C-alpha cells in the first residue's frame, strides 16, 4: 500500500530531527541529505542495465552495503572508506568534500553513541516506502520534493547562520517564469548559469521551465553547499550539471580563453549586501577596481556593500541576447554614494527590463524586503522604460517567515508577462520619469506605485447633523453596478449629499442575501462554477496510474482561473487560491497515490497505530476513521464518512437517533442531580464531586437503596433513587445499542471498500470529495461578497447613527439623573 507523500516527508523529517541530538541543523543536514542521496543513486543505478550510467555505484558502496554495516562498532570509518571514497573515485563529478565525515566524534559522538546514531539514521531510509528504483524525475517528483521539503526545514532551523543556502521555492518559480525560458525557445545548446548557486534550486527551476535538457552550470563559495548542489542535481536527474566550488567574484571558474563565459540565462540569489566581497581585489589611485574580467567598467561598488558587484558580474555573464533575474535587497534601488552612478549606468544601458518588489521576511537569514531585478540584453536598444511591480503585500504568514501564496505567484507572473497597468500594483515607468530632476534615477518602487490604502475619512457634518455621506455610499459602486436596485432598498435621500438607512444595521446582511439581484449574481457565479465542474469532473476521472499529478492540477487550476476572470465582484485569484490550498491539503496526496497504484488499490484501507501527541500521551492520528474491534483503519483516498454518506445513510441515521436519545437521557440525569443535591436533596447521599463534576456511580446508588429498604420515612428518596437508576439503566442500554450499531456499520464499510469498482471510487473521490470541497469553498467566496458589503454598510450606519445634538441631549438627561441620585443621597456634585 503506497503511503501519502506528506506523511512520508513529515515522518522522515520528524525521525531525522529526533535523532540529531544536540548537533546544529546546518551540520546535521549534511548527513541526512547524504543518506537521501546514497539511497536514491543506489536504488536507481546500482543494478542498472545502462552501459554508461550517470552515476557509477562501485561494488560494496551501495546503500544496501551501508545497511549491512549497522551494528558494527566501526561503522563510521567503514562508511568513509568503503562507501564514500570508492563512490568519489568512480565519479569524477563528485568530490570528497561533497560528503560529511561519518567518523567525526565531535558531531556524532564516540563508540556506541556514534554507532547507534548512524545505524538509526540508516534505518530511517531503509524503508519500503523509500524505493526510488522506478523514480522518474520529470514525472514522479517524490524524490525531488522530499529533498526540497528537507531543505526548507533545515533552512528554517538554520536562521541567520546558514539559511542562505536555500532560496524559497516560490521565489525560484517566479524567477524561472519571468526570465522567459520555455520549451519553445530552448534548444539543445541552451545554457543557464547561477554564479551563487547555493543548493542549486534556482537552476533546477529554470531547467524545469525549459521542459527539456539544457546545460546547467553554477558556482558556490561554500564547499559543503556546492556538494549539496551537486547531489541536488543528481537527485533531480541532472547528473551532467557542472557545479564548482569557489568565490565567483575573485575566482570565477567558468571561463573561455581567460574571459568570462557568457550564457543565455543567468539567475542568482547572492548574499545580501556582502561586506567582504572586495577581499582579494586591488584598487588604483582613482578607486577603480583592478579586474581582468572588466566587470566594473561602470564604476566600483562600495567596498562594504557587494550587491552591485554581483549584479555587474551577472551582466558580464550574459551573452548578447541574454536574459537574467537576480534577487537583491531593496536598497540597491535607492542607495546613494557609489551606488548612485552604477544605478544610473544600469538604467541608461537599457538592460534593466523590470523590477519586482517582494514582501519582507521571505528569505532565510534575513527579514528585509528584497526585489527581483530582471535584465534583458536582447531588446535593450528599443527599451523606453522599466516595468515595475510592487507585490510587497501579497503573502501569508508561515511560522517565523512570510510565504508567497499560489495566487501571489500567479499574479506576479501574469502581470509581468502582460505588462499591464494595475492600480496600486504595477505600471510601465518611462525613462523620462525616472531620469527627471525629481527622481534622478532613484528606483524606489514607492515613488512610482502608490500601494497605500485610501483613508476612511469621517464626515463632520454627518456627525453633527446625522445621515450617511453619499460619497461613502458612492464608493461602493462596484457592488451597485452588479446590484443596482439594492442601493435604493438600503438607502433613502435625507438631504443633499446625505442618505438615511431604511433598515436597522443588524438587518443589512440578511437583506443583501435575500435580494433578488444578489441571488442572480450568485446564480451566475454558480453557472460558471458548474460549467468548470463538469469539465473538471471528466478530466479528473480520466486521470490514471502513471499520469502526472502536476499536469492535472495545472490544467484544472488554470481553467478555474480563466473561468472566473470576468466574473464581477469576485477576485479570480482568490478563487484560484481555494483550489490550490486544497491541492496542498489533500488533492496532491490523492493524485500521487492514484498515479502510483491506481484508483482501486489507492482506496483500500490501511491499519494505523497510535502515536504520541504533543502532550506525550498516545493519541490516534485523526478522527473519522473506523475500527474493527481494537484495530483502527483509514483510507487515505476515501474517508469513511464519504462511504457512509453514499452507501450507509440509513444506518448512520439510526445511529444519530441513538445519539440524540443518549443526549436526552444524559440531560435528564444531569437535571435529576441538579434537583437532588444539597442539604435537603433527595440524591445528596449518593452524589459525588463538586460543581460540573458531580456524578452518581451505580455502586453508591445500589448501596443507598439497600440501606433504605422499605422504610416509609425514606419513600421520597427511594423513589428519586429508583428514577435515577432507571435512567442510568436506559442510558447504558442505549449506549450498548449504539456501540453494536456502530460496530455493524464499520464492518459494512470495511467490506464495501474491498468491493468498490473503479467507477465507484471515482464517484466518491472526484464528485463527493474533491469537487464538493472546492465547490463549498468557492461558494463561500460568493457569500463573502455579501459579507463585505454588509460590513461596510453597517460600519457607516453605526458611525453616524447618533448625531452630536442627540448625544448632547442624552448627556444632559443622564447628567440630570446622576444629579438626582446624588441629591437623594445628600451628596453634592461640583
UniProtKB/TrEMBL annotation:
Chain segments annotated as coiled-coil in the UniProt record: 648-675
Catalytic activity from the UniProt record: a 2'-deoxyadenosine in DNA + S-adenosyl-L-methionine = an N(6)-methyl-2'-deoxyadenosine in DNA + S-adenosyl-L-homocysteine + H(+)
Occurrences of domain N6 adenine-specific DNA methyltransferase N-terminal (ranges): 10-125
Transmembrane portions of the chain: none
Pfam families the UniProt entry points to: HsdM_N (PF12161), N6_Mtase (PF02384)
Coiled coil found in the keyword field: yes
Keyword tags: Coiled coil, Methyltransferase, Restriction system, S-adenosyl-L-methionine, Transferase
Gene Ontology annotations of biological process type: DNA restriction-modification system; methylation
GO molecular function, one term: N-methyltransferase activity
UniProt-listed InterPro entries: D12N6_MeTrfase_N, DNA_Adenine_Mtase, DNA_methylase_A-5, DNA_methylase_N6_adenine_CS, SAM-dependent_MTases_sf, T1MK-like_N_sf
Stored PANTHER family: SLR6095 PROTEIN (PTHR42933), TYPE I RESTRICTION ENZYME MJAVIII METHYLASE SUBUNIT (PTHR42933:SF3)
Family affiliation: Belongs to the N(4)/N(6)-methyltransferase family.
Protein name: site-specific DNA-methyltransferase (adenine-specific)
Organism from which the protein derives: Altericroceibacterium indicum
Amino acid at each position: 500500500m503506497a503511503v501519502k507523500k506528506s506523511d512520508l516527508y513529515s515522518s522522515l523529517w520528524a525521525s531525522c530531527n529526533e535523532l540529531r541530538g544536540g548537533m546544529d541543523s546546518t551540520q546535521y543536514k549534511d548527513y541526512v541529505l547524504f543518506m537521501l542521496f546514497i539511497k536514491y543513486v543506489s536504488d536507481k543505478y546500482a543494478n542498472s542495465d545502462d552501459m554508461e550510467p550517470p552515476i557509477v555505484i562501485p561494488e560494496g558502496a551501495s546503500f544496501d552495503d551501508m545497511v549491512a554495516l549497522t551494528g558494527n562498532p566501526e561503522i563510521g570509518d567503514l562508511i568513509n572508506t568503503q562507501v564514500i571514497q570508492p563512490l568519489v573515485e568512480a565519479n569524477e563529478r563528485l568530490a570528497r568534500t561533497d560528503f560529511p565525515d561519518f567518523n567525526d566524534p565531535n558531531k556524532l559522538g564516540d563508540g556506541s553513541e556514534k554507532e547507534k546514531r548512524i545505524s538509526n539514521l540508516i534505518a530511517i531510509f531503509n524503508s519500503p516506502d523509500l524505493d526510488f528504483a522506478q523514480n522518474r524525475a520529470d514525472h514522479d517528483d517524490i524524490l525531488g520534493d522530499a529533498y526540497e521539503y528537507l531543505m526548507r526545514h533545515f533552512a528554517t532551523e538554520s536562521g541567520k547562520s546558514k539559511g542562505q543556502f536555500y532560496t524559497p521555492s516560490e521565489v525560484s518559480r517566479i524567477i524561472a517564469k519571468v526570465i522567459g525560458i520555455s520549451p519553445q525557445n530552448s534548444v539543445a545548446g541552451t545554457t543557464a548559469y547561477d554564479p551563487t548557486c547555493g543548493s542549486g534550486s534556482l537552476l533546477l527551476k529554470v531547467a524545469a521551465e525549459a521542459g527539456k535538457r539544457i546545460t546547467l552550470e553554477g558556482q558556490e563559495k561554500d564547499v559543503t553547499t556546492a556538494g549539496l548542489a551537486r547531489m541536488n542535481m543528481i537527485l533531480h536527474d541532472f547528473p551532467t550539471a557542472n557545479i564548482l566550488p569557489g568565490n565567483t567574484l575573485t575566482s570565477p571558474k567558468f571561463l573561455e580563453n581567460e574571459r568570462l563565459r557568457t550564457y543565455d540565462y543567468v539567475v542568482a540569489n547572492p548574499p545580501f549586501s556582502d561586506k567582504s566581497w572586495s577581499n582579494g581585489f586591488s584598487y588604483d589611485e582613482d578607486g577603480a577596481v583592478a579586474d581582468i574580467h572588466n566587470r566594473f567598467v561602470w564604476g566600483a561598488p562600495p567596498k562594504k556593500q557587494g550587491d552591485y558587484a554581483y549584479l555587474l558580474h551577472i551582466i558580464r555573464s550574459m551573452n548578447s541576447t541574454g536574459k537574467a533575474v537576480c534577487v537583491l535587497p531593496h536598497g540597491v534601488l535607492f542607495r546613494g554614494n557609489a551606488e548612485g552612478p552604477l544605478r544610473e549606468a544600469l538604467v541608461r544601458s537599457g538592460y534593466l527590463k523590470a523590477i519586482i518588489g517582494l514582501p519582507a521576511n521571505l528569505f532565510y537569514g534575513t527579514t528585509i524586503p528584497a526585489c527581483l531585478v530582471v535584465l534583458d540584453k536582447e531588446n535593450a536598444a528599443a527599451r523606453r522604460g522599466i516595468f515595475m511591480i510592487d507585490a510587497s503585500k501579497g503573502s501569508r504568514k508561515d511560522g517565523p517567515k512570510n510565504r508567497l501564496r499560489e495566487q501571489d505567484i500567479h499574479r506576479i507572473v501574469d502581470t509581468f508577462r502582460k505588462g499591464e497597468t494595475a492600480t496600486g500594483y504595477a505600471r510601465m515607468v518611462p525613462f523620462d520619469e525616472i531620469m527627471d530632476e525629481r527622481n534622478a534615477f532613484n528606483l524606489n518602487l514607492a515613488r512610482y506605485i502608490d500601494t497605500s490604502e485610501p483613508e476612511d475619512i469621517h464626515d463632520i457634518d454627518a456627525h453633527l447633523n446625522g445621515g450617511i455621506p453619499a460619497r461613502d455610499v458612492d464608493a461602493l459602486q462596484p457592488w451597485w453596478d452588479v446590484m443596482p436596485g439594492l442601493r435604493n432598498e438600503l438607502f433613502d435621500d435625507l438631504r443633499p449629499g446625505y442618505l438615511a438607512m431604511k433598515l436597522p444595521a443588524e438587518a443589512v446582511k440578511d437583506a443583501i442575501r435575500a435580494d433578488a439581484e444578489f441571488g442572480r449574481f450568485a446564480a451566475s457565479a454558480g453557472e460558471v462554477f458548474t460549467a468548470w465542474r463538469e469539465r473538471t469532473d471528466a478530466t479528473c476521472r480520466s486521470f490514471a496510474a502513471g499520469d502526472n499529478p502536476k499536469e492535472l492540477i495545472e490544467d484544472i487550476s488554470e481553467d478555474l482561473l480563466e473561468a472566473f476572470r470576468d466574473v464581477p465582484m469576485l477576485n479570480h485569484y482568490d478563487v484560484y487560491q481555494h483550489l490550490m490550498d486544497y491541492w496542498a491539503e489533500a488533492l496532491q496526496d490523492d493524485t500521487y497515490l492514484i498515479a502510483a497504484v491506481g484508483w482501486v488499490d489507492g482506496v483500500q484501507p490501511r491499519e494505523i497505530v497510535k502515536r504520541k501527541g504533543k502532550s506525550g500521551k498516545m493519541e490516534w492520528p485523526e478522527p473519522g476513521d473506523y475500527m474493527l474491534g481494537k484495530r483502527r483503519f483509514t483510507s487515505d483516498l476515501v474517508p469513511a464518512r464519504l462511504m457512509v454518506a453514499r452507501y450507509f445513510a440509513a444506518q448512520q441515521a439510526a445511529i444519530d437517533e441513538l445519539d440524540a436519545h443518549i443526549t436526552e437521557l444524559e440531560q435528564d440525569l444531569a437535571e435529576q442531580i441538579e434537583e437532588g443535591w444539597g442539604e435537603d436533596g433527595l440524591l445528596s447521599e449518593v452524589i459525588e464531586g463538586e460543581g460540573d463534576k458531580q456524578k452518581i456511580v451505580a455502586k453508591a446508588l445500589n448501596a443507598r437503596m439497600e440501606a433504605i429498604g422499605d422504610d416509609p420515612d425514606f419513600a421520597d428518596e427511594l423513589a428519586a433513587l429508583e428514577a435515577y437508576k432507571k435512567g442510568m439503566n436506559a442510558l447504558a442500554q442505549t449506549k450498548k445499542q449504539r456501540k453494536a450499531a456502530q460496530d455493524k456499520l464499520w464492518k459494512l464499510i470495511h467490506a464495501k471498500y474491498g468491493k468498490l469498482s473503479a467507477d465507484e471510487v471515482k464517484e466518491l473521490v472526484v464528485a463527493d470529495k474533491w469537487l464538493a470541497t472546492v465547490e463549498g469553498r468557492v461558494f463561500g467566496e460568493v457569500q463573502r461578497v455579501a459579507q463585505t458589503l454588509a460590513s461596510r454598510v453597517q460600519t457607516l450606519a453605526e458611525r453616524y447613527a447618533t448625531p452630536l445634538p442627540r448625544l448632547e441631549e442624552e448627556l444632559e438627561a443622564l447628567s440630570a439623573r446622576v444629579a438626582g441620585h446624588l441629591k437623594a443621597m445628600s451628596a453634592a456634585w461640583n
